[in-house]
Design a protein that fits this description.
The structure is a single chain. By secondary structure, the chain is α/β, with parallel strands linked by helices. The protein folds into 2 domains: 128 residues, Rossmann fold; 140 residues, Cytidine Deaminase, domain 2. A 6-stranded mixed sheet has the order 6-13-11-9-7-8, with helices on both faces. Strands 3-2-1-4-5 form a 5-stranded parallel sheet, with helices on both faces. Strands 10-12 form a two-stranded parallel ribbon. A hairpin with a 2-residue loop joins strand 7 and strand 8. The protein is elongated. InterPro entries: LpxI, LpxI_C, LpxI_C_sf, LpxI_N. This is DUF1009 domain-containing protein. It comes from Phyllobacterium endophyticum.
Length: 298
């Protein structure tokens, strides 16, 4: 990891995007970035905000709102608004209560039942099933990276002033192996290694909560060694059109609180939300951010 990378690059070259695009918006900053990019390109995106998840700012433009138990109504909205493309952006904190979902008025029953079956799967299985359901009605599902290619992590290299030292490189290797392992089990996308030993794995609570756990362990003196590295990478079976691993300014801030030396992410399959701001925050904190190549499939 010695080459300095300057600009993000997109994951794939896909056919041109035509027609109106809808953003099914969960929590986090990604839906905002996608909406802003579409508007800059002259588009008029429809925001379909997930109730209790989407950021308040998303309600300022052309929008609809559905709860997580009303996903059967999604297809009806897409058809009524003349939508051609759909982007799934942002996270979902809460899975639906199945009985509530079956109340009358929650939309297309066939679509609803297909969505509900998907919610019984792990995250990757869920996303694949949701995408397949949307596509079965003739809509094109796009990845956020296809709309905002400059948020994709660049080719392998260092994107900050600081580089990883020998100890950190060993930590990256250990955490990366762990992240790939839990990813293959559809559990999470991140791990932390300190002193060449994995001390935390990401679960359903997410990266920030995992880093808080590391900070707590340090405060309790259950981790005595200094340094350490956060690694994030896509699951081996990752559906790249949704739920790609992501970092941002908050990731850097939480890595600092956890006492880590840096962050390593998978090149071309990780998103950096607020690329310039994230790199600047890491530089100011004295952390490194490095990108690494995708693990070859066996």
């Amino acid at each position: 990891m010695t080459t300095t990378a300057n600009k993000p690059s997109s994951i794939d070259k896909n056919p041109p995007i035509t027609g109106r695009t809808a953003i099914v918006a969960g929590n986090g900053l990604l839906p905002l970035a996608v909406a802003e990019s579409l508007r800059k390109q002259g588009g008029n995106p429809l925001i379909i905000a997930i109730k209790g998840e989407a950021q308040p700012e998303l309600y300022e433009g052309d929008h609809a709102e559905i709860s997580i138990v009303e996903l059967g109504g999604l297809v009806k909205i897409l058809k009524a608004e003349g939508i051609s493309n759909v982007v799934l952006a942002g996270g979902i904190r809460h899975r639906p209560e199945f009985r509530a979902a079956l109340r009358p008025g929650n939309g297309n029953l066939i679509a609803l039942l297909r969505f509900l079956r998907a919610f019984r799967l792990g995250d990757d299985g869920l996303l694949r099933a949701v995408i397949a359901t949307i596509e079965s009605y003739g809509f094109r599902v796009l990845g956020a990276h296809e709309i905002v290619p400059d948020i994709v992590a660049p080719a392998p290299g260092t994107i900050t002033r600081k580089r990883a030292d020998g100890e950190s490189i060993a930590n990256v290797k250990a955490a990366r192996q762990a992240a790939i392992m839990i990813g293959s089990l559809d559990i999470g996308q991140a791990a932390v290694a300190i002193g060449r030993r994995v001390v935390a794995l990401e679960g359903v609570e997410g990266t920030d909560a995992m880093l808080q756990r590391v900070a707590d362990l340090r405060r309790e003196k259950r981790i005595n060694r200094r340094g350490g590295v956060l690694v994030k990478c896509a699951k081996p079976q990752q559906e790249v059109r949704a739920d790609l691993p992501a970092i941002g300014v908050s990731t850097v801030e939480n890595a600092v609180k956890a006492g880590l030396k840096g962050i390593a992410i998978e090149a071309r399959r990780t998103l950096i939300l607020g690329f310039s701001e994230t790199v600047a925050a890491a530089d100011e904190a004295g952390l490194f951010i490095e990108t690494f190549e995708q693990e070859p499939s066996s």
